[in-house]
Design goal:
CATH class of the largest domain: Mainly Alpha
Order of helices and strands: HHHHHHHH
CATH superfamily of the largest domain: lambda repressor-like DNA-binding domains
Number of helices: 8
CATH topology of the largest domain: 434 Repressor (Amino-terminal Domain)
Structural class: mainly alpha
Largest sheet: none
CATH architecture of the largest domain: Orthogonal Bundle
């Protein structure tokens, strides 16, 4: 993990959420340039502020630091939807993901994307 990870991750989360550095700073109860200072690498957040940032975005600290999770807000939303499914449906979904060929999944997702655009 490089030293710019925290600032870059906050920037990504902020951009995905459509919130400015200034607005996020204010929502966290900080000075107008607080998030800018973190994003630019000038400072690191305190542990309390870091936890407040995670709470604001609705993610856990482990999700924040998981470098393999490139879309933490999307993963959060998907996880929330999965939590409402019964165990048998979760098991079926797991089986599909384990056995499906990547190109078949890609075709399915492309179909669903076109369907959503035409019917959404």
């Amino acid at each position: 993990m490089d030293k710019n990870f925290i600032g870059n991750r906050i920037t990504k989360l902020r951009m995905e959420s459509g919130i400015s550095e200034r607005e996020l700073s204010f929502r966290l109860g900080k000075a107008h340039n607080y998030i800018y200072s973190i994003s630019s690498g000038k400072i690191l957040p305190t542990m309390e502020s870091f936890l407040d940032i995670c709470d604001y975005f609705g993610i856990t600290p482990s999700m924040f630091f998981d470098e393999q999770t490139t879309e933490p807000l999307l993963i959060r939303d998907i996880t929330g939807k999965l939590n409402g499914l019964p165990a048998k449906d979760l098991s079926l979904l797991s089986d599909i993901l384990e056995t499906a060929e990547p190109e078949h999944l890609k075709s399915y997702f492309e179909f669903m994307d076109k369907f959503r655009k035409n019917h959404g």
